[in-house]
Amino acid sequence: MNKTMTLANGQTIPVLGYGTWRNNDPKECVNGVKWALEHGYRHIDTAQMYGNETEVGEGIRLSGVPREEIYLTTKLNNDNHGYENAKRTIDESLERLGTDYLDLFLIHWPEVKGHEDDWETDNIETWRALEEAYEAGKLKAIGVSNFKVKHLENLLPNCRITPMVNQIRVHPGIHQAETVKMSREAGMIIEAWSPLSPIPQMLEDEAIVEMTEKYHKTVAQLLLRYCVQKDYVPLTKSVHEDRIIENAAIFNFKIDEEDMAYFDQWEWDGEVFN
Questions:
Q1: Residues in domain NADP-dependent oxidoreductase (predicted)?
Q2: Whole-structure pTM value
């Protein structure tokens, strides 16, 4: 659980994150964050869009884990794009989370309502606010989320500080190879959201069921381990304490090359992206 990766600025990020997307029930959200931290997670991911920053902050406080031991991420709401809006709302997130700094702050989406025709300028101006908050010490690292190649091609030449993370949807069936390649060439760590999406279909896959018996692991554990071996940082969410514990048990085994190759070529019947 203490495995980390190193960002371009020398900061370290735990390789397994506890996500809070769609965790809107206040009690469930508080308990989920609290349980995750009590059971060894040290990376918590939320977003302004999720509407649960206050509850995430409460869960952190109730856990008793010192703030400096926790890697805390939030993301910019689509309504808060633009230089002035982003500057203001970073402080609002800090207040809701009950902290004076964030370990990572991301632009959540590159193209948002109201900026369909000027998203290029919008992203550059929004990023400028993140750079200034980073230089002021409010943000220990800054990055982007759901940025594809065209968005990176627009932003990267206009940065003073290169994004350190790109949080995207990657798992067997969705690889986003060109985005991953470009992000990594620019020095970014890849975070994987919704890495457990393939589970329903995989439960019907005989070869993968055999893998669960071979490794004595669940499909969820195999998918999270797959991400780790691909050098992604997976973000996994559950509101059940036993599942939170189970999802963390991925550092005591390794998927062999043949099985990794099977996951690499596996075809998903679900939505292609987002």
A1: 16-265
A2: 0.96
